[in-house]
Structures are given as C-alpha cells and as structure tokens.
From TrEMBL:
Gene3D superfamilies xref list: lambda repressor-like DNA-binding domains (1.10.260.40), Umud Fragment, subunit A (2.10.109.10)
InterPro entries registered for this protein in UniProt: Cro/C1-type_HTH (IPR001387), Lambda_DNA-bd_dom_sf (IPR010982), LexA/Signal_pep-like_sf (IPR036286), Peptidase_S24_S26A/B/C (IPR015927)
Protein name: Transcriptional regulator, XRE family
One Pfam family in the UniProt entry: Peptidase_S24
Organism: Methylobacterium nodulans (strain LMG 21967 / CNCM I-2342 / ORS 2060)
Domain HTH cro/C1-type, residue spans: 34-81
GO MF: DNA binding
UniProt xrefs under PROSITE patterns: HTH_CROC1
SMART domains in alphabetical order: HTH_XRE
Length: 232
C-alpha cells in the first residue's frame, strides 16, 4: 500500500458550548421551513436517523466534520459562523486495518502507516490516539470499506467499556490475530461484541466473559468514524 500524501494544513471552525443550542435550532429550522425530512439529512451526511434525532434534541454533540456536511447539504451557513472559534487540524497515524474474518500473522504484515487529518480532542494525549482503515462489510451500517476510525487506546480511557460503546477488538487464534470493530452489548460478566452489518456473514457476536480474557481483548475505543466522500 502506498503512502497517502498530507493535505495542506488548514483551520476548521466548530461550535463552542454556548453556540450549540443555536446551531441545533438553526438546523431544525432549516429542515422545518424547507420541509426536509430528517431521513434525507441523515442519508446525506452519513449518520443514522437516530443519531440525527439525538443531535437535534441536544443529546449528541454536533461534530465539526458533521457541521460541514450539514451546511453543504443545506447549501447554507449558520448565522453564527463568524463567531465560532477556530481549532487546529491535527494529524493521526493510520496504523492498520480492521477487517472481520481476516486472521493474519503480525510478523508478516506489510501495511504502510500514513497520516490523515482530524480535529483533536484536548482531553486525550496525542500519543494515545491512532487511526485504522475499515476493510470489508462487517460494520457497513456504521462505516463502509475504505472509511477510517479514530481510536483512543484502552489504557488511556477514563473507564472500562460498557454497553453501547464502539471498540476495537483483537481476537487471537494461535499466532494469528484478527482486528475488528464491534459494538458492546450486555453487562458485566456477559459481554457481547457485535458487528453492525446487512451482510449475512456478519450477524453473530463474540461472546466474552468479564473483560475478554486471553483470546479476545478490547484494545481501544472508537472516538469517531470518518466517512469517505463520493465514490464512482
């Protein structure tokens, strides 16, 4: 795999805490006044209808890249754009692939690391953040083949995983390792790690006891899914 060149450094604008309610009201007003269903917005920006509903009700933060896609879809900018504080775009290293069913010998991995831009969260140390590229169809309801995920190392997380979290999972079979993304469901002592796919091959969870054990290990928390653009 060849290295991906760096994009020119730039600055993005994201909403401060005080502006988020105004942003939500502006988006909801645009949808209402123009009679655009939430389903159309969710499809255009690559989020589930539930995620859009929670975003508009204030139960979910509007992220910088999501705001950019919303504005592009609506063909308009929020009236408070000039007031939004600038935040530097950082770079994170893509260190590997997540692919269900692909057990590989880590001694013979030929993956070439490369950098992608992302908006850093100041809560997490830079050295605890990595990225992966998604391969295959095991989470195609959430991320497609070729999309990226931003991951916080499990050792830097403020709590253990819990139901609803998206996590990066390592499963070992002898000297071979499978690295995948799963959603946590269940409760302490009876965790299930689920794919999220419309592909019949990926409809069963990994069932683990406690925090996994020797063969199944959660190595990170997915902080964000970065979707690719138009594909031809």
């Amino acid at each position: 795999m060849t290295s991906v060149p760096r994009v020119p450094e730039r600055r993005r604008r994201v909403a401060s805490n005080g502006d988020r309610e105004l942003l939500r009201e502006w988006i909801a007003g645009q949808l209402r006044d123009r009679r655009i269903p939430q389903k159309a917005l969710s499809s255009a920006i690559g989020l589930s209808e539930d995620a859009v509903s929670r975003m508009l009700s204030g139960k979910r933060t509007i992220k910088a890249d999501e705001l950019k896609r919303i504005c592009a879809f609506l063909g308009a900018s929020p009236p408070l754009t000039a007031q939004l504080p600038a935040r530097d775009v950082s770079y994170v290293k893509v260190v590997g692939e997540v692919a269900a069913g692909a057990f590989i010998d880590m001694q013979y991995v030929d993956f070439v690391d490369y950098d992608i831009p992302y908006v850093a969260d100041p809560r997490w140390p830079k050295e605890a953040i990595t990225a992966y590229i998604v391969r295959g169809e095991s989470i195609n309801r959430q991320a497609r083949d070729g999309d990226h995920i931003i991951v916080l190392d499990a050792s830097a997380a403020p709590r253990p995983y819990q139901s609803g979290d998206w996590v990066v999972v390592e499963q070992r079979c002898g000297d071979l390792v499978e690295t995948t993304v799963k959603q946590v469901r269940g409760s302490e002592g009876a965790w299930e790690l689920w794919p999220d796919s419309n592909d019949d091959r990926f409809q069963r969870p990994l069932v683990v006891a406690g925090n996994g054990g020797d063969n199944v290990r959660v190595i990170g928390f997915v902080l964000d899914f970065i979707r690719s653009g138009t594909r031809f």
